[in-house]
## 1
Amino acid sequence: MESNSIIARMFKRQAADLLRNELAHMPAVALLGPRQVGKTTLALEVAQERPSLYLDLESERDRARLTEPELYLSQHQDKLVIFDEVHRTPALFPVLRGLIDQARRDGRRQGLYLLLGSASLDLLQQSGETLAGRIAYLELGPLNARETGEGTTDALWLRGGFPDSFTAPDDTRSLRWRQNFIRTYLERDIPQLGPRIAAETLRRFWTMLAHNQGGLLNVAQLARNLGVDTKTAHSYVDLLCDLLLVRRLQPWYANVGKRLVKSPKVYVRDSGLVHALLDIGSKEALLSHPVVGASWEGMVVESLLASPAPGVQGHFYRTSGGAEIDLLLSQPDGALWAVEIKRSLSPKVERGFHSACEDLQPQHKVVVYPGSEVYPMGHGIEAMPLNELCQRLSQS
């Protein structure tokens, strides 16, 4: 991996234009994503384009400025005010509602407040009713294949998409960064968010999910393995999903006269965290590990789900008879993209994919593989590299 060239590259985040667009139309925007994913960097980049004020609510000095929040913020109504880690001051939301309503009466209806949060549960629970109709939500995930560019797919797969991990000077430092990230989340960040869960218990649970990467979610089995009840195990899954660290990919429901699998598939959303949880530090170790195929699939799924325009929904499709599509993308106009994910340089389409396509009649059928060429595979199926499909989805 040519680390120097990657470190020098500035990443253009796909969410940047969406963020600018929402700020041009809504009084408040919440940008949600895990810690260290680049929310503050993106917010400050956008802030350079207009008068703005940045407040870090983990800073005692900045929190002190908000002792009388209405009085302080009323002095900065001509600026975009950015609140970082806004969940630390839940009493702020009713104040923002009043200020937004006053600004509307004064003719200022957009681009007033940008709220940054490290978990969806924070802002959705605290602001859902208070700022209803006044706020838009955007999600910023780790870097994806389209953002890192050509020739970086293997590095993205091994190291994951957290910028500091991806741009580390070598694989050893990258793994160490991710191990520290996991430890900080378990020992500091999660307790700050409210749940009182033993760090080692949650680490074991998170590691179990990594071992089961891309598998059907069986909470009862996870509960038995961890020695807790099913309700507790469900709460752990919910927590990691709310923290935007784990994804439940829901099954596609269709009236096809066949028995469909109804359990979601579960992924640790960043492949680099999968490898850190399983102590995989190099590409050689990864290629010989049983998780190799599922890890590749998870990385591809996350990059593809980050690429389409808003309104595209991702699912998987599986029947009890063996028909299966790894990722089914549903466009707002009803068009379907059926995506099969293969790690092989000479991918073969299995019978289950053909059978599933007969059931659903998707408009596009694609096999993603780690090669560099686009070529037809017959039956209307194309093989293509991940970056090429990300580009096509962004233009569809």
## 2
Amino acid sequence: MSLAATLKTRARASALALLAGATLHGAAAAHPTRERVAPVAWREIASADVDAMNRDLVAGRPTIDVAVYLPSNFDPGFDKVSLPRMLEAVRAAKQIYGRAGVQIHLLWVKTGAVDPRLLAIQSNEIPGVPDTEYVNTYEASRRHPTVPTQMALGAFESIVEPDADNARTLYLIALQDVIFPFVEPAEGRNWTIKMVRTGGLSFPAYSYYRTLPPRLRGVITITNLSSPSRQRRTVAHEIGHKVMNVSHEYRDVDPAHEVFAEGGLMLYGAGEDIPAGADGRWHRERLLLSPFVYRLRADGSKAWNPDYKEGGHYYDPLYGDKVVRFPGRSAMDPNW
């Protein structure tokens, strides 16, 4: 091989190596490894009066444990979540679930300084395989579950304190912004990526099927309680995603990213109903079967419901026949 040919070959190899390095660097930047963040130093807020919130609890009734983490270092311009608003939201949730036969036990309300970089997070990676009409949204989520970002996981690792009951406890974590990206049909055979600023996000098992570490599966983020309607329903609605393990649906309304209608707690509207039976899509039955529910024994120990058998997808055998088999559908042009 001539010197010129040798140099040309080496130049091409160097260029390919640089391109590969740039590609790998870009991939690493897009999917950063989980950063180790120091645990938050939490302290209980005495003025929250947790004991008063729990005075109506009755031993032996189905119960859910809920804990609240409220950062002390919100930016000065953020006022959508406060201690009074969070407490009012928990009181409303207690009323709503009490009517369905389940009581909420508030474990604590704590405050502390969260790493400022984690006051705003992206919840999950952009989905790689959008839903089509061949299977319904729950089966699609089982096949292609939502994947939390390393940023979100790092944040929750630093916020949620280690505990034997981590996997059974619901954690209401107040943050400034939690951005949720999703894919929806645009036109023809195309999809578009959307990113929504959430007021609350539940990271439910039907969607994040086996992608959340067990000790973080009770995480719920709360970012907007600024109106009376949000204070009344946001916490209760997000708890519903966890404990009923259903999306935005109600009676004859199949699940979707956003469903605005009146009636059920799991729709966007003013409804608070948690219906029962086949006509109610088994919401109350699924609630009472939830692994987050327990009954307090006479000796003070907790008799927990059985855990998920297959990681908590919508059709998990835990629920038996308390599921809805509905067809898939798509807004995409069928003649693409």
